[in-house]
Design brief:
By secondary structure, the chain is α+β, with helices and mostly antiparallel strands. It has helices at about 1-25, 60-85, and strands at about 30-35, 35-40, 45-50, 55. About 50% of the residues lie in helices and about 20% in strands.
């Protein structure tokens, strides 16, 4: 009986310390590398990167980077496509 009075609080304190070791510094570990801010979940190990849409995975970050790099070209192509959709290659207007 005397062992239970000491053992139970000791086990509870140890469990509390183990949980606190993960939660005290926060759920995420943050860092910056080559100008890109990222965070890593301390429990699952999932990496996420800061972007204009919030925290995203690496694949979403790459897609956003590519779309922003070529985003200006897209509107130019759409304008060109709209301008040439009513004409034929010979320059004679086609009526529908």
């Amino acid at each position: 009986m005397a062992a239970n009075k000491v053992l139970v609080p000791a086990v509870c304190a140890l469990a509390g310390f183990a949980v606190g070791a993960f939660l005290f510094p926060g759920m995420y570990s943050y860092g910056t590398e080559k100008g890109v801010t990222y965070r890593v979940n301390r429990i699952t190990g999932v990496e996420q990167y800061a972007s204009s849409k919030g925290w995203v995975s690496q694949q979403e970050m790459m897609a956003e980077t590519v779309s922003s790099a070529f985003g200006g070209l897209r509107s130019g192509f759409e304008t060109m496509a709209g301008a040439t959709s009513n004409s034929s290659p010979s320059g004679v207007a086609v009526t529908k």
